[in-house]
Amino acid sequence: MSVRELVVLGTASQVPTRHRNHNGYLLRWDGEGILFDPGEGTQRQMLRAGVAAHDLNRICVTHFHGDHSLGLAGVLQRINLDRVPHPVTAHFPRSGQRFFDRLRYATAYRETVGVTEAPVDADGDLAVTAGYTLQARKLSHPVESYGYRLVEPDGLRMLPDRLAALGVRGPDVGRLQRAGVLGDVTLDQVSEVRRGQRFAFVMDTRLCDGVQALAEDCDLLVIESTFLDEDAGLAAEHGHLTAGQAAAVARDAGVRHLVLTHFSQRYPDPEEFERQARDVGYAGELTVAYDLLRVPVPKRR
């Protein structure tokens, strides 16, 4: 069965807390699993969330600060220990190749799985599959950082009323879909474009063009909101977003479901992030993330 959901493994920025693990997010997209930013403790969080190494097809690292990458060593070793039978591809900023190498070979272990390294060094498409195109856009952070975006190809939605009006029924519907024409009836007459779903993952960054491009028309946007709005100066200094800034991006980009995450340990009340997000006028579905949360990708329009 087709499943599209986000599994939140960790939501803390910089340091873990008693209630929040370091970052970690798994996107289940039909039969594939894409792991984003495996921070320290990700392997244990996977166990708690019911996520196995066999579920992973890609690993996407936005940048090489520890709270986004220190769990990479354990995850890669677990992929090999469990002898994952399918290819696994790792995307990460090319400028951090030396950090990836150190994490991949942090300790001795037996390599049984060929993990393909696919470094990112520019905006653009990283992978094109039948189910999605994976894209990257550069962000603004003290170290090089990239956000990721998944775009499903547009499809067609058949329109029952038009099919009935033109007398197309039963097996003829399938024949028309395959051939594009059936007698005097064309596919365009009885269908409309079904827009593909879109997902974006935006971590440590100031406001920049890349943030806007990643968020545009997303069905589900996962975005950092490290600081509350009263600490906007700190956010800019350290290369982060506030709750209000993240929500304003989602508002302007037409995001359907906004997931705020990557919270500083200085804030004891997570509900304040939601209040500030609503204050800027974001009216879509809104989730303030917590560890082990599961968020479904919104149903098609």
Write the layout of secondary structure elements.
Blueprint: E1 4-10, E2 24-29, E3 32-36, H1 42-49, E4 58-60, H2 66-69, H3 72-81, E5 88-91, H4 97-104, E6 115-117, E7 124-128, E8 133-138, E9 146-151, E10 155-158, H5 160-165, H6 171-179, E11 181-182, E12 185-186, E13 191-194, E14 198-202, H7 209-215, E15 220-224, H8 232-238, H9 243-253, E16 257-261, H10 271-279, E17 285-288, E18 294-296
Parallel strand pairs: 3-4, 4-5, 5-6, 14-15, 15-16, 16-17
Antiparallel strand pairs: 1-2, 1-18, 2-3, 7-8, 8-9, 9-14, 10-13, 11-12
Helix pairs in contact: 3-4, 9-10
Q: What does it look like?
A:
It is built from ten helices and 18 strands. The chain has helices at residues 42-49, 66-69, 72-81, 97-104, 160-165, 171-179, 209-215, 232-238, 243-253, 271-279, and strands at 4-10, 24-29, 32-36, 58-60, 88-91, 115-117, 124-128, 133-138, 146-151, 155-158, 181-182, 185-186, 191-194, 198-202, 220-224, 257-261, 285-288, 294-296. The strands form four sheets. The protein has a seven-stranded mixed β-sheet with strand order 6-5-4-3-2-1-18. Helix 3 (72-81) crosses helix 4 and helix 9 crosses helix 10. The longest helix has 11 residues, at 243-253. It is globular, with a radius of gyration of 21 Å.
